[in-house]
Give the backbone structure.
Amino acid sequence: MHSSEKKRFAGFPPPLLGPVPLRLRVLHARDGHAVLEKPAGVPWERSALDAPSGVVEALREQLDAGKPELLALGLCRPASVWPLETELAGPGLLASSGEALARWRNAFGSEQLRFYFEFLAADAGLDDSFECSLPVAQHVGKPVALVSRNTGKKSMTFFRRVQRAGDWSWWEAVSTYPRYHQVRLHAAESGLRIVGESLYADGGVLTLAGLLPRHRLNKGDDRPLHDGICLRLASVDCTGAGVDGWTTLTASEPEKWTALRKRQAAQCGRQA
């Protein structure tokens, strides 16, 4: 929210969120709200389609235990405003139970928020911008989404090419109500193969050798330049909710993504 805010973190000792300690950056905290930056691969909250517990449950446990670092966030029986998929990094908004939580959840359900995703995909010769409105349904008993004209719910994703990077392009996907795996499913159905995607398309893995001339390494073993799927929730525009002082929540770019962009820029420079 405010670039001048001092960096704060919420710490979770093992085994709350895994076998090693984990520190999540607090992007914003005031008036019974907190925005945490969730890394990829960490569950956000308990779900029938996800791990048994996640950041929300771990936070509540730490609050109940009276951990000063988390009590300082000023939360009371917090709950999540919008869902976050385990595979993706992104900002998650927590609100204290009561009127504040109800107001934010109403804003989310009424599509007053705008979610901006960022991803890298193989260039498929598509237009630089287009929409996908295929209805999205959730598979019964499996953590997977599918297109269904019968049981699917109204869904809309707007795609925009942001930058070409050799054989790939960086894209932005925008939705006012992103359903489970909606961006991944709509991307695949539209012909976009997101790097690291394996559930809805074969996006392959981008390695160091793939960016070098003739795919040769001078030394060392080849290695992936990203962790998992190369897709994240980059920011959420909250201005539509009409809550004073809330504008856009923006998460920092993963370090590996920054390094990947630099390597792609170097490759494009060699090819120019």
Remarks:
- The chain has five helices and 14 strands.
- Residues 196 and 204 are 5 Å apart (CA to CA).
